[in-house]
Structures are given as structure tokens and as C-alpha cells.
């Protein structure tokens, strides 16, 4: 009993001594003495907690647990990089001197009243190049001299690669330039095998914000293999456009113009060329193969309407052989173009 | 030399402005009178539709269904099926109605664009597509290209232009021929919702009589029409009229009933458009 009483008395005395050592609640606590130099000593219990240095060696700012009602300072976001505008790689049928910006994906699908269906998908590479796969309906065929109406060979799959220099890149006023190469996969149609290839050099220039002009030259080649002679002998042979040994048959100039009378609408006109195969034409006289592969001028005009930043509607009229002024062959077309910056933004995010 | 690009830009922009500018909110939108096209264009993003029924004594089931879209305020694209192109194998009798799918593209400029008093201008192409051959009419094709000017003079609206028509079927072909088109609208102030219409247009007949007849091949056919238009909603109107094909005279006149509507989808705050 006496031992238990001793323990209780000792406990009460000890807790009482500890309680007396604490200040009263309304007694202000004196600040700790500061050492000479004004900086609290390390390890001093009165010193603010030290924070480990940041990656750059500078001490990080401690969290502020001060006034919860203090106005929050606006967080200044890093300025976003201005994305370059997207200029279309084609007027209506002819290429332009503009490239898609890096990472921009472009897709165009077209229909026309001649039953043509075409598509074109491209991606911009590093602001200096562009790669694309397309299915064109521009290549046409005829059986022979008596076949007055050319029909299309479709789908005709082509791959293209273009590289170039953006407008005003080298100096102010410099047109945009692209050097492009387009080549088809071999197409077997009606037991005739055909291929086309096209090398283009185009310059495009804006004259103010509402006018742009495109001028270029194309160097064409094509091949045709099959029974090319209108006789009873079935013998296959191959001819090429370059085999005609006449460079003028391969070189063509093309161009177009874009006018923007409205902020979201453009008027487009262009003149391009398309190959036409005539399998058994012999109207060339001494050189009967000359008319088997020919380039035909195509005139197009229409309107582009920017429905959204990522979508454009185009419609117009295309005359596949304007050289013969054949109004009956005129085609009314409609096409929709989508552009996506998703890949471009993802690349920007990685930087 | 330094001024050359600026001058070129100004010339090109002026050409562009003349070729097309914003469709004025005051411009009408009807693409045609009874037969002849007009130079009016629908606003950007507007959807237009017309349904026509054309009964006649011969009960040939003539008519039309047309759907259009205003492209950027500079152009319009239309798809339709109609019986404007007709065929005959005994061409002394009324021609047969044939339903042809057709597409039309028009681009142009509203009135007063280049200078005060300038009429609206439109360049259009309309052609058949995906048309099945029937009987002797193998692979029939018809293409019309036109340039038309329209001017609103408040009480009167005038339309005038020229149309090139080309057509073919089988071994027969009509080389492009030029024909005038004209139209007139009277809008009495006492009846603000009504207009009286008269026009001269052209359609195409495909004739294939047996040899030795010379009536073999396509030929343009004059179509004279007159009627009235009543706008019963701000976005819809009805037209009643009669059209007389040149080859069939007064006895072959066809009564036309046509409903027109326009919906401006691109601007949700402006659901309805005044047809005026």
C-alpha cells in the first residue's frame, strides 16, 4: 500500500513539474535569439525547416502555409508555340509549292458525276517533306482509234514524295518550292499493264492574304504493255513515253490560282495534265505508237469552303480533255478534305 | 519592279471579287424561275430543296426532286432527279418523260459586288450522270453550261444569259449549241408575298425515229413558261405555272406545281431565311 502511494505521489509531482515548465496560453513566446549574422543556426529548433536543393542546386521554396485567404497569384503558363498554318498541297488537281507542316495528316476523298472515286492521304515530314498514298481516277484508256470516249482506269494507286522549301524561308518574298515525285503501282487492266510516273517542280506564292498563284512544270513518263497491234497476231510488247525519244512529249507546264474573296471561302482554278492510254491506236502514221500514250490537259474550277479548321468542302467542275472542248465529258465533283494536327501536337508535347 | 506583285495582287483580287463575294443577305436565293436558271446563290452552309410535280393531259409523271447546298457563299452544288430531258421514237406525239439523275454546280457573285448597279452573275454547269440506257437510247448524256445575270429592281427582277447545250446517245451527238435564256419577275407592292414569273429556257429532246426519218439525235427544245410564286413561310414558297415545249405547242402545255425551301444550317441563330 505504501509502495503504491509512493508511486502515485511521484507521478503527480513529476507531471506537475512538467506543467509548470510550460508557458501560460496567453503568454507570448519570445522569439529565439538570432546568432550573429542574422541567420538562424542550422539545427536550431527555431529555424525554418530546411529543404533539399533542387535539381539546379538552388534551394527549393518551402510551401507557404500562411494566410489561406490571400489572393492566389496567377500561374503564368509557358507560351504555346504558334502552329504554322496549313496550306493545301493541291489546288484542285495540280500540286502546289506548299508542303504540309510536320506531323500534319491530310486526307481527301472525292466523288464525281463520271463515276470517279479518288482518295489521297499524306503526312508532313519535318516541315521539309511530305509522303502520300493516293488512288487517282485521272488516268484514262481507250481501246483504239474508233473508241471516241475514253474511260477511266480506277482505282489507280500511286505513292508520292515531295520535298521543298516553305514560302519566305530563305528570304522575304521567296515563293514556296516543292520538288515532287509520284509513281504508280503497276496496274493490270483488260490484260494491259500500265504504269505512270511524274516529276514535278512547283513554285507557289501569296500576293497578299487573298491571292496565291502556282506555276510548275512536270516531266512525265508512262509505260504500256500488252497486245498493242490491231492485227490477228497476239504478241505482247511494251512501249514507254520516254521511248518515243521526244522530250517535248514528256514535259508539260501546269498552274493554278487561288482567290479568297471571303475569309473561309476560296475560288480555285487550275490546269493540269493526265495520261491517256490508247491500246491499239495506230493513227500516228510513221510512228504508230505515238498516240498510244498521250497527255491530256485537264481544266478545273471550283470553290473550297472551310467548314472547320479540320474540314474543308470542295466542289467544282472538271473537264478532262479541255483541248477538245468536249462539254459532255465535264464532270461535277465534290470532295471533302480533313486535316489533323493530332500527331503534330503529340510531337510538340514530346519536346 | 517592286510594284509588280502588288499590282498583280490587286488585279487578281479584283477579279476574285468580281468572280465571287459574300452572298448578300438581301439577295434572293431561288436558283431558277420555271425553267431558266437565275444567278442567285444560297448563303454558305444553306440547304435548299425543291419538289416539283408536273401533271399533263398525257399523265407522263413529269417532275423533279432537287437538293442543294450553298458552298461558302460563292457557289452552290445541287443533286436532282428530273424529267427535263425527254425522249421520243414517234416524235409527232408528245415526248416521254424520263427520269435522269443530274448534278449542277454554280459559282458566281451577288449583285452590286463590283459596282453599284452590277447584276448578280453566275456560271453554271449541269449534267446527267449514272444514267442507264434504255432501248435505242444508249448511254444518254446531256450537259448544259450557262452564264446568267440577274438584277433585282424592286418591283421587277430581270434575268438574262446564254446557255450551251451538248448531248449524246448511242452514235448520235449534239455539238455544243448556244441558246439565249431570259426571265422576268413582277413583284407587285400590294402583294409582298407574291411574284409573277415568265421565262424562256431550254430542255433537251432525244429523238430516235426509225430511218429514213431525219429526227434522229439530240436537239435543244425551247420551253416557254409563265406562272406565279407565293411565299407562305419565310423559308418556303410554292410556284404554280404552265410550261409549253416548243415541239408540242399549247396543247402540250404542262402545269407545274413546285415547292421550294431553304434552311440555313451554318448559322444556328438564323434558322430561317427570307426567300423574298
Widest sheet, order of strands of chain B? 1-2-3-6-7-8-9-10-11-12-13-14
The end-to-end span of chain B amounts to 50 Å
Helical percentage of chain A:
under 10%
**How confident overall, as mean pLDDT of chain B?**
86
| Count of helix runs of chain A | 2
* Low-confidence runs of chain A: 34-50
Indicate the radius of gyration of chain B in whole angstroms.
20 Å
Q: Give the integer mean of the pLDDT values of chain A.
A: 84
Note the main sheet of chain A: 12 strands, antiparallel, barrel
Bin the helical content of chain B: under 10%
Number of E-type strands of chain B: 14
Q: Summarize the main sheet of chain B.
A: 12 strands, antiparallel, barrel
Poorly predicted regions of chain B are 12-25, 271-276
The greatest interface between two protein chains, and residues involved on each side, is:
A-B, 38 and 40 residues
- Residue share in β-strands of chain A: 35-45%
Using DSSP, what is the number of strands of chain A? Answer: 16
Please give the alpha-carbon distance between the first and last residues of chain A.
80 Å
Amino acid at each position: 500500500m505504501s509502495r503504491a502511494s509512493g508511486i502515485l505521489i511521484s507521478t503527480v509531482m513529476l507531471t506537475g513539474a512538467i506543467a509548470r515548465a510550460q508557458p501560460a496560453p496567453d503568454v507570448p513566446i519570445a522569439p529565439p535569439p538570432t546568432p550573429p549574422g542574422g541567420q538562424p543556426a542550422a539545427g536550431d529548433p527555431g529555424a525554418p525547416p530546411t529543404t533539399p536543393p533542387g535539381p539546379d542546386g538552388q534551394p527549393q521554396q518551402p510551401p507557404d502555409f500562411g494566410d489561406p485567404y490571400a489572393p492566389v497569384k496567377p500561374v503564368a503558363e509557358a507560351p504555346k508555340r504558334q502552329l504554322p498554318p496549313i496550306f493545301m498541297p493541291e489546288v484542285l488537281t495540280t500540286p502546289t509549292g506548299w508542303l504540309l507542316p510536320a506531323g500534319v495528316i491530310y486526307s481527301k476523298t472525292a466523288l464525281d458525276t463520271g463515276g470517279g472515286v479518288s482518295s489521297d492521304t499524306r503526312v508532313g515530314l519535318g516541315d521539309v517533306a511530305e509522303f502520300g498514298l493516293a488512288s487517282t481516277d485521272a488516268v484514262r484508256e481507250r481501246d483504239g482509234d474508233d473508241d471516241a470516249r475514253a474511260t477511266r482506269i480506277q482505282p489507280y494507286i500511286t505513292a508520292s514524295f515531295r520535298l521543298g522549301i516553305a514560302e519566305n524561308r530563305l528570304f522575304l518574298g521567296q515563293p514556296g518550292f516543292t520538288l515532287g515525285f509520284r509513281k504508280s503501282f503497276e496496274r493490270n487492266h483488260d490484260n494491259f499493264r500500265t504504269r505512270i510516273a511524274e516529276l514535278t517542280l512547283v513554285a507557289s506564292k501569296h500576293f497578299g492574304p487573298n491571292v496565291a498563284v502556282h506555276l510548275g512544270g512536270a516531266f512525265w513518263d508512262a509505260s504500256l504493255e500488252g497486245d498493242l497491234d490491231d492485227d490477228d497476231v497476239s504478241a505482247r510488247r511494251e512501249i514507254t513515253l520516254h521511248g518515243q525519244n521526244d522530250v517535248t512529249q514528256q514535259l508539260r507546264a501546269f498552274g493554278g490560282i487561288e482567290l479568297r474573296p471571303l475569309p473561309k471561302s476560296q475560288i480555285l482554278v487550275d490546269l493540269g495534265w493526265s495520261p491517256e492510254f490508247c491500246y491499239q491506236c495506230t493513227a500516228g502514221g510513221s510512228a504508230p505508237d505515238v498516240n498510244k500514250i498521250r497527255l491530256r490537259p485537264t481544266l478545273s474550277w471550283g470553290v473550297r469552303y472551310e467548314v472547320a479548321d479540320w474540314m474543308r468542302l470542295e466542289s467544282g467542275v472538271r473537264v478532262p480533255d479541255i483541248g477538245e472542248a468536249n462539254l459532255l465529258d465535264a464532270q461535277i465533283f465534290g470532295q471533302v478534305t480533313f486535316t489533323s494536327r493530332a500527331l503534330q501536337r503529340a510531337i510538340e508535347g514530346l519536346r | 519592279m517592286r510594284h509588280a506583285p502588288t499590282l498583280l495582287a490587286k488585279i487578281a483580287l479584283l477579279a476574285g471579287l468580281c468572280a465571287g463575294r459574300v452572298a448578300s443577305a438581301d439577295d434572293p436565293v431561288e436558283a431558277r424561275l420555271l425553267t431558266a436558271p437565275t444567278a442567285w446563290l444560297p448563303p454558305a452552309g444553306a440547304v435548299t430543296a425543291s419538289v416539283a410535280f408536273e401533271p399533263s393531259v398525257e399523265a407522263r409523271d413529269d417532275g423533279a426532286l432537287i437538293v442543294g447546298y450553298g458552298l461558302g457563299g460563292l457557289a452552290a452544288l445541287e443533286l436532282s432527279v428530273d424529267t427535263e430531258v425527254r425522249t421520243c421514237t414517234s416524235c409527232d406525239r408528245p415526248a416521254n418523260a424520263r427520269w435522269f439523275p443530274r448534278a449542277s454546280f454554280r459559282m458566281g457573285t451577288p449583285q452590286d459586288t463590283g459596282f453599284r448597279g452590277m447584276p448578280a452573275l453566275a456560271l453554271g454547269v449541269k449534267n446527267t450522270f449514272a444514267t442507264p440506257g434504255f432501248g435505242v437510247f444508249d448511254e444518254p448524256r446531256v450537259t448544259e453550261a450557262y452564264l446568267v445575270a440577274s438584277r433585282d429592281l424592286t418591283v421587277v427582277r430581270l434575268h438574262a444569259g446564254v446557255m450551251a447545250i451538248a448531248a449524246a446517245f448511242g452514235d448520235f451527238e449534239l455539238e455544243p449549241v448556244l441558246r439565249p435564256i431570259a426571265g422576268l419577275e413582277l413583284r407587285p407592292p400590294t402583294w409582298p408575298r407574291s411574284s409573277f414569273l415568265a421565262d424562256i429556257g431550254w430542255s433537251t429532246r432525244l429523238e430516235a425515229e426509225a430511218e429514213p426519218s431525219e429526227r434522229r439525235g439530240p436537239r435543244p427544245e425551247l420551253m416557254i413558261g409563265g406562272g406565279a410564286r407565293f411565299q407562305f413561310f419565310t423559308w418556303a414558297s410554292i410556284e404554280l405555272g404552265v410550261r409549253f415545249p416548243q415541239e408540242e405547242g399549247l396543247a402540250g402545255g404542262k402545269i407545274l406545281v413546285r415547292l421550294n425551301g431553304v434552311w440555313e444550317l451554318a448559322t444556328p441563330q438564323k434558322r430561317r431565311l427570307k426567300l423574298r
